Structure formats: structure tokens, C-alpha cells
Amino acid sequence: MAEKPDKKQFVLRISGKLYNELAAWAEDDFRSVNGQIEYLLTECVKQRKKNGKYVPEDIGNDGE
């Protein structure tokens, strides 16, 4: 049986305007706002890694 990835919870405070933009984007991509934020952060980390910055290998890896 595959082990579930370790998910951390934290509070994120953003402006109402930014939230509305993320919510609309998430809807376009058929994701929840939380899923959209996680997707965007994962993509940013991958880009940072690709650009030669150190990021641990297992970050954002959900068995892909």
C-alpha cells in the first residue's frame, strides 16, 4: 500500500483581491483554491531547482 504524502497545515493571509484571482484561476483549471496554490508553489520550486538553486529532491513529489 502506498504511503500518503506528509501534508502540513498553516495559515495563509492574502488580500481579498489576490484570493479572488486565485479562485478564478483555480476554477479555470478545475482545482480548489488550496490545490491551485499548492500546484503553483510546486511549479515555482521545480523552476528554482531547474535554475540551479538547491531544493531537496523530494519536495512536491507526490509519487509522480
Topology:
Elements: H1 16-28, H2 33-50
Structure, explained:
The protein has 64 residues and is mainly α. The chain has two helices and no strands. The protein has helices at 16-28, 33-50. The longest helix has 18 residues, at 33-50. It is extended and about 35 Å long. The chain starts with 15 loop residues before the first helix and ends in a 14-residue tail after the last helix.
Mean pLDDT: 85
Run of helices and strands: HH
How many angstroms separate the termini?
16 Å
- Measured as a percent range, the helix fraction is 40-55%
Number of helices: 2
- Total E-strand runs: 0
Sheet/helix structural class = mainly alpha
Short description:
This protein is mainly alpha-helical and 64 residues long. Helices cover 48% and strands 0% of the residues. Helix 1 (16-28) packs across helix 2.
Keywords:
single chain; 48% helix; 64 residues; mainly alpha; extended
